[in-house]
Write a structure and sequence with these properties.
Layout lengths: L7 H9 L15 H8 L15 H8 L7 E5 L5 H8 L3 E6 L2 H14 L3 E5 L2 H4 L8 E7 L9 H12 E12 L10 H7 L10 H7 L4 E7 L15 E7 L17 H6 L6 E2 L1
Parallel strand pairs: 1-2, 1-4, 2-3, 4-5
Antiparallel strand pairs: 3-8, 5-7, 6-7
């Protein structure tokens, strides 16, 4: 008889296990093992393997909606968005479960002559340790829609812990009716599979991120193959802002830009460049 659940973390870990491989089939719930296999062949014709940033992220930077500062790329994969941000003056931490993905991201950073601090592991466990916020920008292009429902709780807690007041979340995820599983949360647990990722509606994204202010939420532009930008119409792209708390007298608290220099001095030897 097994009685291992004592804490909330124990419950989350138990639920994680429901989405691991069974019957010999690989599953995203396998974590690093699944994604290492996925990234092992760099020549696969996977759209987001191309070395180009999200069109939405580039547009946010070009329009001045987000300005250079500390950035965190969640589930960075081969590093296409992380390298882009570093080339535009951001100080970038990039995290992924997969050593294969991070090796590719490191190669790209060196080829581009930029510095990206690569972190391997579970972002929920790294928050507050190696992932030292606050970050003015958190980028997630394809991580959120691979999370099981219970890990949305962990995701929101991570944002609350690392996203600076006034900072932004730039999110890209599957759009309902175009890509991804549309099973209800309860049915996902009954099936024990996440499929290729979860689909979201506009309403569900607004509900999940209700504590943030919506700046933009739209379908991603469909970019042609020869475009320097990545864009697929089956994705949502969103920009949310964490509003700064009001000063007791009603004025917004000043941005703590001076934090950046102090925090930057703590950067570890895992940086590449």
């Amino acid at each position: 008889m097994d009685r291992t659940v004592r804490t909330v973390d124990d419950v989350l870990a138990l639920l994680d296990g429901l989405f691991a491989s069974r019957d010999g089939r690989l599953a995203t719930g396998d974590g690093a093992g699944y994604w290492d296999r996925f990234y092992a062949d760099r020549s696969k014709p996977v759209p987001f393997f191309a070395d180009k940033p999200d069109e939405s992220l580039a547009a946010h930077v070009d329009r001045g909606l987000i300005a250079p500062g500390r950035a965190l790329d969640l589930g960075c994969g081969p590093g296409r968005n992380a390298v882009f941000l570093a080339s535009r003056g951001f100080e970038v931490d990039a995290v992924d479960l997969s050593p294969a993905a991070l090796a590719w991201a490191g190669d790209r950073a060196r080829e581009a002559g930029v510095e990206v601090r690569l972190l391997r592991g579970d972002a929920f466990r790294l928050a507050g340790t190696e992932m030292t916020g606050p970050y003015e920008l958190v980028v997630d292009s394809g991580c959120f829609h691979h999370l099981p429902p219970h890990r949305r709780v962990s995701y929101l807690a991570l944002l609350a812990g690392v996203l600076a007041p006034g900072g932004h979340l730039a999110l890209t995820c599957f759009a309902a009716g175009a890509m991804g599983s549309e099973l209800s949360d309860a049915d996902l647990y009954r099936e024990g599979r996440l499929g290729g990722g979860l689909a979201y509606t506009e309403e569900s994204l607004r509900r999940i991120f209700a504590d943030l202010t919506e700046v933009e939420l739209r379908r991603m532009n469909d970019e042609p193959a020869d475009s320097p930008l990545f864009g697929e119409a089956f994705l949502w792209t969103a920009l949310f802002r964490r509003d700064a708390p009001a000063h007791p007298e009603g004025r917004p608290q000043p941005a703590a830009a001076s934090r950046r220099a102090a925090i930057a001095s703590r950067r570890s030897s895992s940086a590449v460049g």
